Fold this sequence. Notes:
Oligomer: heterodimer
Order of helices and strands of chain A: HHHHHHHEEHH
Number of helices of chain B: 9
Radius of gyration of chain B: 17 Å
Distance between the termini of chain B: 18 Å
Distance between the termini of chain A: 30 Å
Strand order of the largest sheet of chain A: 1-2
Strand content of chain B: under 5%
Strand content of chain A: under 5%
Largest sheet of chain A: 2 strands, antiparallel
Structural class of chain A: mainly alpha
Structural class of chain B: mainly alpha
Radius of gyration of chain A: 19 Å
Number of strands of chain A: 2
Order of helices and strands of chain B: HHHHHHHHH
Largest sheet of chain B: none
Largest interface: A-B, 40 and 40 residues
Helix content of chain A: 55-70%
Shape of chain B: globular
Helix content of chain B: over 70%
Number of helices of chain A: 9
Amino acid sequence: MASKEVTSTDEFVKGLWRDNPVFIQVLGMCPALAVSNTALNALAMGLATTFVLLMSGLSVSLLRNFIPREARIVCYICIIATFVTSVDYLIMALSLELHRALGAFIALIVVNCLILGRAEAFASKHKPGRALLDGLGMGVGFTLALLFIGVVREILGSGSLFGVAVFPDGFQTWTVMVLPSGGFFAMALWLLIVNRIKQKQAAAAKTVEVTS
Amino acid sequence: MSDASHWSIFLNAALVNNFVLAYFLGICPFFGVSSKLETAVRMGAAVSFVMLVASVCAFLINLLLDAVNAPYLRIISYILVISSTVQLVEMLMKKISPTTFRAMGIYLPLITTNCAILGLALFQTNRGYGFTQSVVYSLGAGIGFALALVLMAGVREKLELNEVPDLVKGTAAALVVAGILSMGFMGFAGLGR
């Protein structure tokens, strides 16, 4: 039993770092770059994607024995599109302003390769509980990654964080960071940091091997 | 109905609001197939073609959905109709012109669930473009996508021959190149107004 518990936490944790969807697998880049110009937008997008991941993972997993193999992708897309439509209307009902800021990118969650990828690679082969954990882990990992990019872009580009100014008045904002190119640069910066950490970990693992 | 002129719609889609470099749509194929010039050209052609098909489909679907007053079915019907139409066209192409099929056929199934295609369909609906406006918009977007892809491939082919630190190799370097390209495209802002 103990080993099973370890693996189900692992199902959740792997999305945070080891298989982080954005930084390690480089999936779902379009929304990660497009709506991360402020931390708030990034957070909203991350939460919306997490919801769709969770619900589609659960549905696909529950229906996994009924969906014919040949038509599975079409079925997955239908399931995902249904939840995306509900999220779209939900956000419109909660905050019209946020809906306008995110624009068509909420609808574009449908084609986020991360969601279809998890449905195909994980949810269709595992029990609902596992699929939920996996969806939650991937969703949180995705949200965190978006938030990281969003925080860098907002602090440098607008001199604020979640709309609250963080720098004294004299700060010259880096307009380039809120422009599209800033998204590419912020993402490249985080990738560098992640690569560096991975390199260090690999080197550490090697020395352990050698000494032991 | 939007009253923007065709020329300004075209310029806007191709250069000012380039799909890849300003809207971040279709990033996956952009990084995936931009390492060689030849594949980039083929992919660009295939995407332009699918965009044209998708635009016409989306326009017709939208007419139908407006008629039955069911806007909530938009996302699901767009994606299903577009992907099945592309599959049909793919089969037709295989039959009629095997050479064209060989040149861009393998990319077609990959493209259908690409965000650039769905994005195009959604944008043209949100902006209320008419039929000719939609077609011009899709042509502009397709050419803009191909242009970005070819430019990127050109840079990456050169980059391949240079010494790059291990840390930056791969995606990080490609991202920085894309960022600089995107800055270059900022220069087009204000065109076609």
